[in-house]
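Section 3.1: Structural characterization of target chains.
Under the original work plan, the team committed to producing a structural model for every single-chain target entering the pipeline before any wet-lab resources were allocated. The record below documents one such target. The sequence was received from the expression subgroup and is listed exactly as submitted; it comprises 74 residues.
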Amino acid sequence: MEELIRILEDVRDDVDYSETKNLIDGKIFTSFDIIQLISTLDDEYDISIPAAEIVPANFNSAEAIYALVQRLKG
């Protein structure tokens, strides 16, 4: 999870990822942020995030993103 937080802070360093649960719904992340994050996650974790997984529920919080990464790595 620490590595994921570092990645998220590279995307946006002005967000408290331990508290924020509405990265998408609250319009904190822009579409560019999401594209950057997906690309970085693909590279860092050697995964491929399918289009069907690119939904707000998977990106609204650090915990949701972490769960997505773990699921795709498994």
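The two ends are 16 Å apart (CA to CA).
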